[in-house]
Amino acid sequence: MANLNEATFKISALEDLLEREFALLKSQDFAQFETLQQRKNELLAFLADNKALDPEGNSVDSESILRNEELSARLQNCRDRQQRNEVLVRQKLSSIREALETIQAGGPARSNTYEHLGKGRR
Fold first, then answer.
1. Tens-place pLDDT, residues 1-18
2. What share of the chain is helix, strand, coil (3-state, %, to 5)?
């Protein structure tokens, strides 16, 4: 990480990315969602890097960012957005699993199904 200004820029990019990720999850655009993952990992790796210098040549590390109130608050916001996105992903996966279980449990043993012309199967 080169300096706190660069860290601020990267945090802003991460905030925007997490919002785009959420919108893509809501619209079920999983292909576009997947394309964001590499960039998100790059941003996270940058923010986790502990070898940096600020413009005056002083060391800037993850702890320095966390001590900065504004950046710390923005990182907490990113964490909250990530958790929100994770909850949505888990809900979507659960729905998909339930749909698959319903499809796989098909056959003559299914109750409350309809045959041709709307007559119930027994």
1. 457 788 889 999 999 999
2. 70, 5, 25
Tokens representing 81? Answer: 């957005």
Q: What is the pLDDT of residues 49-108, one digit of tens each?
A: 755 444 454 545 667 777 788 888 999 999 999 999 999 999 989 998 998 988 887 655
**Torsion angle of C-alpha atoms 18, 65, 72, 23, degrees rounded to 10:** 0
Name the token pair of 107: 């056959």
Burial class (CB in 10 A: 0-12, 13-18, 19+), 76: exposed
Decide: pTM greater than 0.85: no
Instruction: Delimit the domains of the chain by residue range.
Output: 4-105
